[in-house]
């Protein structure tokens, strides 16, 4: 197999998405997998840094809504919620938010160990990308 060029990598359509029925909201939503930069930002948002510059704890406040805000997109693949609008999303039905959060985690390659990974408390996940669709 030949090595890829930068142009091939840059143009690869590698971000998966899922359209998911949400009866509680009366329709479907689209979840787009996080980019590498978005995933890093989300994981960084989970960590509280102390005054010494070391990890002081984990920030779980609106963690589900923070991820959903990065993954919920419209038909044009533009985000529906900005980072500043997370609270509005977090105010929705918790059962729905948690269900969509679990799907967003899966398509973005985040697992139950994401918090520990972000805090540096466990080995990185070496599983392959999700191919669900």
The second-level CATH architecture is 2-Layer Sandwich
CATH level-4 homologous superfamily = Phage tail assembly chaperone gp13-like
Helical percent range? 25-40%
Class computed from helices, strands and strand pairing: alpha+beta
Tell me what you see in this structure:
The model is unreliable at 121-133 (pLDDT under 50). The protein has one domain: 2-Layer Sandwich (rbstp2171). The two termini are 26 Å apart. It has a three-stranded antiparallel β-sheet. Strands 3-4 form a two-stranded antiparallel sheet. A hairpin with a 5-residue loop joins strand 3 and strand 4 (55-58). It has helices at residues 6-11, 36-45, 63-71, 86-90, 94-107, 114-119; strands at residues 17-22, 27-32, 47-49, 55-58, 72-73. The chain contains six helices and five strands; from the N terminus they run H-E-E-H-E-E-H-E-H-H-H. With 133 residues, the protein is of the alpha+beta class. The longest helix is centred in the last third of the chain and has 14 residues, at 94-107.
């Amino acid at each position: 197999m030949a090595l890829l060029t930068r142009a091939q990598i840059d143009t690869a359509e590698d971000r998966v998405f899922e359209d998911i029925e949400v009866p509680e909201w009366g329709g479907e939503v689209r979840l787009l997998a996080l980019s590498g930069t978005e995933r890093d930002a989300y994981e960084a948002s989970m960590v509280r840094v102390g005054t010494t510059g070391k990890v002081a704890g984990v920030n779980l406040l609106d963690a589900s809504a923070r991820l959903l805000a990065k993954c919920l997109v419209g038909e044009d693949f533009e985000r529906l919620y900005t980072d500043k609008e997370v609270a509005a999303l977090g105010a929705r039905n918790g059962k729905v938010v948690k269900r969509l959060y679990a799907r967003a985690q899966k398509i973005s390659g985040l697992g139950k160990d994401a918090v520990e990974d972000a805090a540096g408390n466990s080995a990185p996940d070496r599983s392959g990308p999700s191919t669900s669709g």
